[in-house]
Amino acid sequence: MNTPWYKQFWPWFLISLPLSAVIGGIATLIIAMHSPNAMVVDDYYKEGLAINEILAQERAAAELGLSGLLRYAPGADDVRLELMSPNADAVPEYLELLLVHPTLADKDQSLRLEAAVRGRYLAAMPELSPGNWHLIVSPPDGSWRLTGRMVLPQGGQARLTPGV
Fold first, then answer.
1. 117: containing domain
2. Domain total for the chain?
3. Which of 18, 44, 66, 141 could hold 61 in an S-S bridge, CB 3.0 to 4.6 Å?
4. What percent of the chain has pLDDT over 70?
5. Residue 117, domain CATH
6. What is the pTM of this model?
7. Does residue 104 form part of some domain?
8. Which parts pass through the membrane (predicted)?
9. Of the candidates 80, 157, 61, 156, which has an alpha carbon nearest to the alpha carbon of residue 119?
10. CB burial readout 114-129, b (16+ within 10 A) else e
């Protein structure tokens, strides 16, 4: 009783193993082509040069003795910043707050913090997705910068310091 090969179990089993690898490879290729990795930097040389500028801004903030305390209460419409500076001239009329999502650049937000009282700033807070957000505060001219982190939507306080 000789049955043809195509009616037996083992040939189909042996064919299915490499066939499933080929199908999985094609599926992986399609997924990779339709969703590029946003974390990969196109021009790493320019990114490397920008690090020196960032370090210079953080050194400038440290030399000026700047630090800050950012407060956000869940459900509140605004975010408040208290900028501590021994030099009153280092306090500009407004500051820029950059809320950076840790993995998705398209979720980043930029806010303008307006001076309410000398050294205290206020801005309307947009609705943000939950997560551990990186905070960057700098003056309009970009001469210095302070950084910190805040978990949203829990809010609370975030200490902003020069990164050096």
1. 66-160
2. 1
3. 66
4. 93
5. 2.60.40
6. 0.70
7. yes
8. 12-32
9. 80
10. ebeeeeebebebeebe
